[in-house]
Amino acid sequence: MLNPPELLRLIRDVPDFPKPGILFKDMTPLLADPAGLALAVELMVNPYRSSGVDIVAGAESRGFIFGIAMAQALSAGFVPVRKPGKLPAETASMEYVLEYGTDRLEIHVDGVKPGQRVLMVDDLLATGGTMQACCRLLRETGAEIAGITVLMELTELNGRAQVDEFGDVHAVLKW
User: Fold this and answer.
1) In the chain, what is the straight-line distance between the N-terminal and C-terminal CA atoms, in Å?
2) Which residues are tagged catalytic?
3) DSSP-derived secondary structure letter, 23
4) Residue 82 Cα to chain centre, angstroms
5) What is the number of other CB atoms lying within 10 angstroms of the CB of residue 91?
6) Contact 150, 124 (CB under 8 A)
7) What is the C-alpha separation between 114 and 107, in angstroms, rounded?
8) Secondary structure class of 8 (helix, strand, coil)
9) Which of 53, 76, 78, 172 suits 113 as a labelling partner, its CA being 20 to 30 A distant?
10) Other CB atoms within 10 A of residue 175 CB
11) How confident is the model at residue 45 (pLDDT cuts 50, 70, 90)?
């Protein structure tokens, strides 16, 4: 079985992507490795096994990859948090600020019921803006945030500070 240092070796550094000066952490080698993927999901879900999660919500798009597997492991449902215009039925939305403008996230209004405990999932916590918007959107539906779990956290960007109000944040790998 792999351990977290072996997971680190499955994350590829891609310099100057998506723009010069950025060192992109590419998780696609981890996704292609069956043992690495299984371990990553287990390490993301384990802290929440007995926390009464009703729904796992995954942020588009890499949060979907881990979120479905985690929902299955927790015997919970899954709700996608999507970019605008991707969901076919009535949606609730949340606008948030990016370094270069604004964006918006949406969920189906009937995807989460008031009082349900939601575990928010994404692949990466960087500045925290997307995760904060996801959690605020879920909270507006009446959901309770049971926790936030990510595969990777870029600690120098202090994204955790943006989501402290929502409680527990769990990251498997940190840089």
Assistant:
1) 23
2) 62, 99
3) E
4) 12
5) 19
6) yes
7) 14
8) helix
9) 172
10) 14
11) very high
Q: Can you give the pTM of this predicted structure?
A: 0.93
Tell me which amino acid residue 157 is: L
- For residue 65, give every residue at least 6 positions away whose Cβ sits within 8 Å of its Cβ, in sequence order, or none: 31, 58, 123
List the structure tokens of 111: 């995807």
Rounded distance, CA 1 to CA 165, Å? 35
- Buried-exposed string 30-64: b where 16+ CB fall within 10 A, e elsewhere: bbebeebbebbbebbbeebeeeebbbbbbbbebbb
- Rounded to a whole number of angstroms, the CA Rg of the chain reads 16
- Beta-bridge mates of residue 93: 106
User: How much is the pLDDT for 2?
Assistant: 52
Res. 49: pLDDT tops 80: yes
Structure tokens that stand for 76 in this block: 């919970």
The C-alpha atoms of residue 7 and residue 37 are separated, in whole angstroms, by 9
Question: Tokens for 49?
Answer: 């096994």
HEC profile for 64-128? HHHHHHHHHHHCCEEEEEECCCCCCCCEEEEEEEECCEEEEEEEECCCCCCCCEEEEEEEEECCC
Give me the amino acid identity at 79: V
CA distances from 115 to 32, 54, 136 (A): 37, 10, 14
CA atoms of 25 and 12, how far apart (whole Å) = 6
